[in-house]
């Protein structure tokens, strides 16, 4: 009897030890590249505090239409982290691991482990010497704490949503020598409207802010379509958010208006996994898959899966 309990104890301990192991146990191996991948590009539009039921024909005519297109993966049930602060969720989107691994538990970013779990752009920079990775954000901590160290270009000064849009448009349209190949954008005014007036499609300040962002998104999508059609560029287009909201906050982790948000992935020729509900850790593996970058280390560390079939 005693032997059995000891054995049980040993097994339990071993199981829990295994759970803690992946950090150090993951091999730091060589990245492999898919030689069939040519010049692939990615635009990720981040919209802070997007409550799913605010995606309506009236409020967001462009994104509403996009959500039902045949070449789009869309879900209004995309799962946030159990910790519904902005910091952990943007960190999980960019690193492909859950918050208990990257260890960002609030908006202070204290204790973050990005050196072990870097943003996906780190692997792209390792894999492709010439690639231009960009991040332009309204909420500066995303760049200060997550991106700055790993990407080619990150905005550092405070930008409002219109400035984020204009800068993105200029960079995409006027292809200088620093044209972005993999481009992350972040709009924050929807979250601000939610905190001031309420996160709800019934709150006019929230709805109007989202309508303004919908116009930005449409404009950016049209630029991508022109680049595809006129220049033959091969872009994956994504729209993501960190959390929803209810009342004037997003702290109640049990509330589906808060712990679910939207996720879009669009490409003219790709198939995306049907009937799958994405979560925050699926963005990074999907982008690395699209860019043809894989390794045992990535598979071992990342919690998410690629939704590209
Ligand atoms: Zn947020």
Write the layout of secondary structure elements.
Blueprint: H1 2-20, H2 22-25, E1 32-33, E2 40-47, H3 61-67, E3 72-79, H4 86-95, H5 99-102, H6 120-127, E4 133-137, H7 141-147, E5 153-154, H8 161-173, E6 182-187, H9 189-197, H10 204-231, E7 234-240, H11 256-259, E8 260-266, H12 283-290, E9 293-294, H13 296-301
Bound molecules: zinc ion.
How would you concisely characterize the structure shown here?
The protein is α/β, with parallel strands linked by helices and 309 residues long. The protein has helices at residues 2-20, 22-25, 61-67, 86-95, 99-102, 120-127, 141-147, 161-173, 189-197, 204-231, 256-259, 283-290, 296-301, and strands at 32-33, 40-47, 72-79, 133-137, 153-154, 182-187, 234-240, 260-266, 293-294. The longest helix has 28 residues, at 204-231.
Structure, explained:
The protein is an alpha/beta fold and 309 residues long. It is built from 13 helices and nine strands. It has one domain: Alkaline Phosphatase, subunit A (3-Layer(aba) Sandwich), CATH 3.40.720.10. The strands form two sheets. A seven-stranded mixed β-sheet has the order 3-8-7-2-6-4-5, sandwiched between helices. A two-stranded antiparallel sheet has the order 1-9. Strand 4 (133-137), helix 7 and strand 5 (153-154) form a beta-alpha-beta unit. Residues 1-21 have low confidence and may be disordered. Zinc ion (ZN) binds at residues 48-49, 86, 191, 242-243.
